[in-house]
Amino acid sequence: MSRIAFVGLGNMGLPMATNLVRTGHVVTGLDLSGDALARLVEAGGRAGGSLGEVVAEAEVVVTMLPEGRHVESVYGEENGVLTHAASGCLLIDCSTIHVESARKVAGLAAARGFDMVDAPVSGGVGGAAAGTLTFMVGGSDVAFGRARPILETMGKTIVHTGGAGSGQAAKICNNMILGISMVAVSEAFALAEKLGLDAQKLYDVASKSSGQCWSLTSYCPVPGPVPTSPANRGYQPGFAAAMMLKDLKLAQDVASLAGQATPLGAEAAQLYRLFVDAGNAGVDFSGIVRFLKGA
Ligand code: NAD
Question: What does the pLDDT look like over 14-53, one tens digit per residue?
């Protein structure tokens, strides 16, 4: 079992850190929120003092932070992880960030001799709590081999996607599919309503036909057909629209740098921008169905 420093105990990080505690790791947490730290302590973890102290004692550092700027500052700043980590410490960043940001931090880590992976996740808060996340892991074979047993305590599917940054590439490609497909499914339910077609009937047909997809059968945007979907609890997230917008913007940014046209990705990003700007940042991303219906 390892001494793990876990930085970022938010919606995702806290349940992930809790699963590490449950499997016997000694987990010391850090967060800007005292509440988050208290909840880790309740779950059997420890509350850390300063980043430098916590990281210096760790064999593994896991970060789960909102955006690239947080990751770059936590790792790269004068008092950051790369300054204080002990030689041989394994670095795992699970945040969803820009591919270039991930490569930059991985480059700095490699220059100091650390094994590091970018390991963003899919599966949401439910998957984090259940320990069934999918990890997309970018980094060397050696770094992946070291990270794998740690990731297995938090997830069910662990895929080595290639070199540094490739985990982030996989994540934003996946989430671009998700954003586009949620808009597609929502448009279909909006049209069905106008045509007098019952939502459950559309579900019964499309879930067994060529329109079948995760946004329909696991996360149906209208109440009724899939009891666990956020549509049945007033579109409380789940996965907030602001997070979806962030991921679609990351995808657009990378697509433009790579010179790849992604017209539907661009359209989905634009729709989520309008949805978020209309006061829906904290609403589950499947709530876009109400927006498309003109509510
Ligand atoms: P969150 O905002 O709930 O948690 C982030 C935590 O990081 C907060 O508790 C915050 O206080 C802490 N933090 C910020 N800066 C810090 C610093 N300098 N030092 C220590 N702690 C700091 O976000 P989340 O929902 O847990 O998401 C985290 C990452 O996971 C994001 O990149 C997100 O895109 C990704 N993600 C989220 C979901 C989801 O369903 N929420 C799913 C997949 C991936």
Answer: 999 999 999 999 999 999 999 999 999 999 999 999 999 9
Domain match, 158 and 176 both: no
111 and 206 in a single domain? The answer is no
Q: Which of 28, 32, 172 to mutate to test the pocket of ligand 1 (most atoms within 8 A of CB)?
A: 32
Quick check: 32 and 13 in contact, CB under 8 A?
no
Tokens of 133: 């996340």
Is there a single domain that holds both residue 209 and residue 66? no
Among the candidates 148, 163, 178, a domain finishes at 163
Could you list the active site residues?
A: 171
Q: Encode pLDDT of 113-150 as tens digits.
A: 999 999 999 988 889 999 999 999 999 999 999 999 99
Q: With 80 as the cut, is the pLDDT of residue 272 above it?
A: yes
pLDDT of residue 237: 86
Q: Are residues 26 and 147 part of one domain?
A: yes
Q: Which atom of ligand 1 is nearest to the CA of 96?
A: 32
Range of the domain at 285: 169-294
Name the residue of 31, 39, 182, 249 whose CB sits within 8 Å of the most ligand 1 atoms, as the mutation to test its pocket. 31
| 125 within ligand 1 shell (Cβ under 6 A) | yes
Among 131, 163, 195, identify where a domain stops: 163
Long-range contacts from 126-133, C-beta under 8 angstroms, 24+ separation: 127/155, 128/11, 128/12, 128/15, 128/16, 128/19, 128/154, 129/15, 129/18, 131/19, 131/155, 131/156, 132/156, 133/16, 133/157
Q: What pLDDT sits at residue 124? A: 84
Same domain? For 139 and 249 the reply is: no
141 in the same domain as 85: yes
User: Do 156 and 270 fall within a single domain?
Assistant: no
pLDDT of residue 295: 65
